[in-house]
Write a structure and sequence with these properties.
alpha/beta; five-stranded mixed beta sheet
């Protein structure tokens, strides 16, 4: 059963839907009931649309999602996670510093895969949850890792990341 949409959501969807064309050869599909507007329904004040945070930039060359077979082994516990870092309750600056130190230390020790727990934050919008993947894909850490993926739900799901480290020299 689909959740009921608020009138504002239906109006926003109607504005978006008029700008979309169906794929070649396909009929338009009515995803929502048609919007009926009358003079009584016109909003008296402008509607503000809350923008979602910008998408993270593409990872630098060399950092890829973890290959499916390796990810499955991590999820099932067949490939061990060498160490875990829990960033719960830390401020952004302290979390960044600890993440950098952790990744460098574990790579120097020869670890190949680690788990970074960021937490999900309030309503899934935590600052560490959004920032940690960016930190990992930007210098100085981008040169230390080869793969990154969301952890299995038993290990934290959307609030945790598997990080595959490059081999130490």
């Amino acid at each position: 059963m689909r959740p009921r949409l608020r009138p504002e959501d239906v109006q926003i969807w109607a504005r978006v839907a008029v700008s979309v064309r169906p794929l070649h050869g396909r009929p338009p599909s009515p995803a929502l009931p048609p919007l009926v507007t009358t003079s009584a329904m016109k909003p008296s004040s402008p509607t503000t649309v809350r923008r979602s945070p910008p998408l993270p930039p593409q990872p630098p060359k060399g950092i890829h999602p973890i290959e499916p077979n390796r990810l499955r082994r991590l999820d099932l516990g067949r490939e061990p996670v060498a160490a875990t870092l829990d960033l719960h309750g830390l401020g952004e600056s302290a979390a960044h510093d600890q993440l950098v130190a952790f990744i460098r230390r574990e790579r120097a020790r020869g670890a190949r895969s680690v788990l970074v727990i960021t937490g999900k934050g309030h309503r899934g919008e935590g600052i560490l949850r959004r920032r940690a993947p960016l930190w990992l894909t930007e210098p100085p850490l981008s040169s230390e890792i080869t793969g990154l993926a969301e952890a299995h739900r038993t290990r934290g799901g959307a609030g945790a990341l598997y990080v595959i480290l490059k081999r130490s020299r």
